[in-house]
Amino acid sequence: MSNEMYLEWYRQLVMIRRFEQKSSEMYQLGKIGGFLHLYIGQEAIAVGSVAARQENDHVITAYRDHAHALVVGIEPKLIMAEMFGKVTGVSKGKGGSMHLADVNRRFWGGYAVVGGHLPLATGLALAEQYKHTDSATLCYFGDGSTNIGYFHESLNLAGTWQLPVLFICENNQYGMGTAVARASAVTAIVDKAKAYGLPASQVDGMNVMKVYEATQKALAAIRAGEGPQFLEMITYRFEGHSMGDPLRYRSSEEVEKWREDDPIGILERHLLSEKLADKATLEQIDKSVEQELEAAVKFAEESPLPSADDLFAHIYVEA
Amino acid sequence: MARITMRQAISDALREEMHRDPDVFIMGEEIGVWGGTYAVTRGFYDEFGPERVRDTPISEMAIGGAAAGAAMAGLRPVAEFMTINFAFVAFDAIINHAAKVHYMFGGQMKCPVVFRAPGGGGRQLGATHSHTPDVIFAHFPGLKVVSPATPYDAKGLLKAAIRSDDPIMFIEHATLYQIRGEVPEGDYVVPIGVSDIKRTGSDVTIIAYAQGLQVALSAAEQLANEGIEAEVVDLRSLRPLDMGPALESFKKTFKAVVVEEGHRSYGIGSEVVARLQEEGFDYMDAPIKRVAQFEVPLPYSQQLEQSALINADRVIAAVKEIL
Asked: Do B143 and B202 have their domain in common?
């Protein structure tokens, strides 16, 4: 692992954290509409796993998608503009927070029907198998998704056809306000994957280095022809499910306990104790992220709204 | 020209497209080793192999979604739902995903998938297996919905659907698989979203599609024996809906009957009538009639089922009411 890579991970972790805080601020100012789901607490998963992908790998996720959009390389300003409903947004103002995508980066988006994108991921992987490429598909979803039929049909199909897909469950302990044990007969989600014959393991989702290693190993197995793989990332969302979550379903003691494992803190302590970076370098990164986000908000503010003609554009490819 | 069945015409279209374009493949329940429950894909498994003729588990959510995903990644899947009744299980994949991704992501991605689905009543299969839910699929912008009535149209429309960059619901009425019609040798397409006059006449306009079109033609023949000449318009596509020929005909006959196999309320007929009065009000000489399935879940018992479905007598009665 090079120093540059560690520092880049640190930058991405901080970027996601600050981006989400800025989004929350903009939401409260009424600049962002609809639903807004923050990734705060889960940053290490998107950063560590996407870092392990090769360029032709697909990425697809659910509606808590800002982080994945950022780490595949979409400029923060294009995401902010999307959430402001501006035509300069990454989905031209038609998708919003939950529907970010950049096909050129093989990022197929945010999907907002729980579990609905799992078969899409299976299909992306099917296309690559059909074309005999070495591309894998990284498919992210929450613990809540593992209770819907889509999950079971997709894992079964991927297992039956041995498709090159890596299922990454971001187990943040709650589907909205319902704890895993209150919604799933099997609380170790890896066991559900094993039922379909997929090699599956649990990973400390708060530690970006462990996420990276596990993802790298799983992707190598896929490319070695060992079929679909499954990782259950154990994590926690520090904020509510979405803006306006009353947080009645968990105690502040529980939240505080998880906050001790802040993914930024874990990497920062590692970097400092191993002398891979000094405090000043990290502060410099924090500052540059802050500046980029200020510029992103400015860009979003100043961008034009979609025109009346845009309403009827892109319903079909062929009119 | 050879007279072939609709089953053969659909099969030929699929086979020819698979030979033409290596990105075209088919997937669905029992389409491979079994040869298709309606025998449309008989022989395909041996001819194209298991990679391009993919038997799936009984997993409509995954069939719908995986076909859409493969299409997004650049392939041209033709996914078969064993019957359209089972496509209900895949409704989210079809409507929320296949039909939305192009628009929702600002035109970045395409989803050139074809969902084939045999459907319709009249085969004593009971309430859950006898739906004609075409209008439900036709309600949503983003999806195109096609339902042919003749072997010629079936072959040409399916080829157009497979070559289209948009997601398409291709609805086949199972009682039409056996009908025969003239189909030319060689390649041709029938454009999606273009209606067609199937019979000319000057006394009344009958607007129909799929199985309803065959019922309408049979009614028109009997009416002709009584000296009543009906013009019969075949919609062929339900979305986009081409009202041109129907409207032109209506402006000539001033009277219209709309025939469909689905239920009457909120049906295709409702839409067609609304458009006729909006765009042809000055030409309206009589109420525009709808002939459709009665508002009941279809029963098993043959006579009971048939009494709920459309037939030529009901079309003739509707025509005579307004002449």
From this structure: no
Distances (CA, A) of B104 to A285, B32, B96: 34, 34, 10
Report CB contact under 8 Å: A315, B61. Answer: no
Distance CA B298, CA B126 (A): 6
What is the domain count for chain A?
1
User: Do both B217 and B171 map to the same domain?
Assistant: no
* Cα(A209)–Cα(A262) distance, integer angstroms: 13
On whether both B178 and B236 belong to a single domain, the answer is no
B110/A contact by beta carbon, under 8 A: yes
| B285 in any annotated domain | yes
A36 touches A243 (CB < 8 A): yes
List chain A residues with CB under 8 Å of B71. 123
Q: Within this chain, do residues B165 and B227 fall inside the same structural domain, yes or no?
A: no
Interface with B, mutate which of A120, A148, A303 (most B CBs under 10 A): A120
Q: What is residue A187's predicted lDDT score, i.e. its pLDDT?
A: 96
Mutate to test the interface with B, among A60, A74, A157 (most CBs of B within 10 A): A157
Per-residue tokens: A230: 């499954």
| A155 in reach of chain B (CB within 8 A) | no
Percent of chain B having pLDDT more than 90? 99
Instruction: Report residues of chain A scoring pLDDT below 50.
Output: none
Q: Do A317 and B75 touch (CB under 8 A)?
A: no
User: B178 and B205 share a domain?
Assistant: no
Summarize pLDDT for B83-116 with one digit per residue, the tens. Answer: 999 999 999 999 999 999 999 999 999 999 999 9
The one-letter code for the residue type at A58 is H
Can you give the pLDDT at residue A300?
98
